[in-house]
Structures are given as structure tokens and as C-alpha cells.
Amino acid sequence: MVSKLKIPMKQINRIRFASYSRVAVVDTQPVAGNNSLPAEVPCHIVIDHHPRRANLKADLVLVSPEIGATATILVEWLEESQLAIPADLATALTYAISSETQDLGREADKRDVQAYLKVFTKSSMRKLAKIFHPSLPRAYFIMVAKALNKAKSFRNLICAHLGEISTPEIVAEMADFLLRHQRIGWSLCTGRFGDDLIISLRASNPKAKAGKFVRQLISRQIKAPLNKVGGHDMTAGGRIPLKDILKDDVVELETRLSQDFAQLKGYKDVEWKPCPVMAGTTSLSKARNTINKWPKWQLPRWARSSKRITNVTSISCKPTRT
């Protein structure tokens, strides 16, 4: 979206905050722990849809936890002010509401629907399509493969510990991805980024109270104040500091998270099982049986004979070079 809409961006370490009279944060709060605003920089404006933090201080605070996307607030402000909404801005707001609420299907309020309809008709359909369906780098598919290979399930729970990751956002994306597995109601995903263990929790039940659940889960692991934990009914996340934890202890921490995840859902004597993934070498007998069941029109020309396949000597799935 940043490239398609040519949105000017700057790394936060290059910003001289003293040069600005006002600082605003959107879709986060200064004390939430999920943003890069330095603690010593005062925040004057907060616009967010997450539950308000108890120690939040700012000149103007607009927090609406009943809606599904912070962009909805901005659309309402623009409409109220009767300002024209350019196509690129409408495109960005449309994508923001859609992605945050998963096409208005997750925690979306009537206000979200109304705001979406107002900006959708003003959007650039060509740019919006490219934003929704972008070209993805090889690293993304490597991470998808890692999530599938590391995923383990028990009853209606699924979890995956990704290990080292290059971007923290991939954890939430993989948690959303794993939740789409049939008969799964909860997904937990973690990833090690810098000095933190990123945790993302997803639930399919609109009344799951995932935010409360993730606080219980993380409070079992650390005794420090949970400033970097929060969420909604169906989505939640947090961070556990890893600065003073050895690598082997991090693995043990991830194992405890999986066990506590199941125990807090009421399960005892949990045995996590790997999710079946088509990887490695397939047995020859299974390969032959599978090929023989294919209709002829699905087979390559050399195999479209009336004879059964009996001369397969080896078959394997090899990963592409990375």
C-alpha cells in the first residue's frame, strides 16, 4: 500500500521530535508497548479502537473499543468536517477497514460498515486490487512453509512457534492463517524478533475474550507488569522480553506457552500432534495408488495408457533453493 499510494514514510530514528509541536498516535496508545514512540516523547493526540489503558495521558483522547477499525473514526471525522476525500486516501481507508475486520467479518460494527461503504465508492479500484493481491517475496513463502511444518494441534487448538523472524507482523498473519484450519477454534503463534518473543492469539468465537485470555497466558510466564499485552474478543497479542533469557530457555518458554494455552482452555494431559503436511519423501506404494486413481485427463500424455502404473521407483518432494 505504501508504494502503490506513494505514502511518504520515515524511520522513527530519523525524526527530530523537538521540531514538532504536536505528536499523535493512531491505532495504538503510547503505553501499549506495540509502537516505537520513545517513552520520553510526550503524546498529545491518541486515536484508537483498542481498550483504553489505565495510565493513558494525552491532550486529546478518542478511543472507541466498540468498533472494529480505527480507520472508521477517521472516516467519520472527514464526513463530519465535509472535507473532500481524495481517491488515494479513500483507497487507504477502505483497505484499513477491510483488513482490520477481515472483510467486515471480524468484530465489525455498523459504524465500520457505514464507513467502509462511504470510502469504497471513492477508491481507486485498480490500486485497491493491487494492494489486496500484491506480489510476495520468497521470504514470505518460506515463513508459510515454516508455520505449516511447525504447526501442532490438539482438539480445537493449534499453535506454531516460528523461531527467528524478520518482521514482527508475520506472527499475527500466520495466526490468522492457521485459524482457517477446519475444526480449529483457537490459534496461537509466536516468533522471536530482536529481544522479544512476539505472541499472537486468534479465536473464531466473537465472544472469546482473547484479550483477557492472552493476559492470563502471559502472566503465567512473567511476573512483570503486562504493559505489552492487549487485544479484543477475537484477536490479541503481546510480547515477552527475552533479553536475559538463554536460547535453550526460550525453547522451554515456548513449550510452556503451548501447555498453558491448552490448560487454560480446560484440557489436561495434552499431547500436541504435528499437523499433516505434504513434505519429505512419499512412500512408493502410496504414490502408485494415488496415481492409479487419477482420471486419464489429469495425467500427462506418457501416462495415459490403459495399464496401471507399476514401475515407479522413487518419488520425493524437494524444497526449492533459498
Total beta strands: 10
The side-by-side strand order for the widest beta sheet comes to 8-9-7-6-5-4-10
Helical element count? 9
CATH topology of the largest domain: Diaminopimelate Epimerase, Chain A, domain 1
Biggest sheet, in brief?
A: 7 strands, mixed
Helix/strand/pairing category: alpha/beta
Q: How much is the radius of gyration in Å?
A: 24 Å
Q: Assign the CATH class of the largest domain.
A: Alpha Beta
Q: What is the percentage of strand-forming residues?
A: 15-25%
Low-confidence stretches: 278-282
| Termini separation | 26 Å
Percent helix among the residues? 25-40%
Mean pLDDT: 86
H and E order:
EEEHHHHHEEHEEHEEHEH
Q: What is the 3D form?
A: globular
How many discrete domains?
A: 3
CATH architecture of the largest domain: Roll
Describe the overall structure:
The chain has 322 residues and is an alpha/beta fold. The chain folds into three domains: 12-132, Alpha-Beta Complex (inorganic pyrophosphatase (n-terminal core)), CATH 3.90.1640; 138-274, Diaminopimelate Epimerase, Chain A, domain 1 (Roll), CATH 3.10.310; 281-322, no CATH class. Helix content is 33%, strand content 16%. The strands form two sheets. Strands 8-9-7-6-5-4-10 form a seven-stranded mixed beta sheet, sandwiched between helices. It has a three-stranded parallel beta sheet with strand order 1-2-3, with no helix packed on it. Strand 6 and strand 7 form a beta hairpin. The longest helix is centred in the last third of the chain and has 18 residues, at 247-264.
